């Protein structure tokens, strides 16, 4: 078996796994199990005979991406409307601003990574990597919207709202520090593998993501923050494994 054939086979297997990663991502969390209508629709789309090609599978992922983007828009306004304080409301506005800025920079990084590959099989992997952060953001906003609505209803009923969570600084949270260490390790690995001309793209994307993380961290619980960093680790690791493949 020639090295070229092996690389091509590896690319095809990666593409086949990409959709599965999207479909099953988050199933370990009960509140985001695969019963979500958007995930269900994507699985049904992927199972259609006329979507069996790489292009067809990418269409299914992109349709899910659009649906999750709509879920972001639908959840964001209730978060602002029901935020228990002006500080939290402004915090979520800043988080969303940083999120949008990061997504713009990340698009350039994704392009730089996949520009080093050859073969249509990687189109699915790229589509997956575009989708997953959008899905994660929608679920985070849904969770915040549900929590704030619960607190608002408790106040209306004259009951004490749920106690506000206090998220310690990452430097005071061992799990957060460990996740940050792993992220920096994979970041350095990706930087070393990228072409020199693409390294500034990585630097801008990572700075933008750090700004998003820092704006979002105080708004969510400690475990959610670790999950946020963990998702970034998974993305950077995937980028590192992808660079230079053909």
Automatic annotation (TrEMBL):
The keyword DNA repair does not apply. Residues 1-30 form the signal peptide. The keyword Signal applies. Residues 45-141, 171-217 form the Lysozyme inhibitor LprI-like N-terminal domain. Keywords: Signal. It holds the Pfam family LprI. It comes from the Bacteria. This is DUF1311 domain-containing protein.
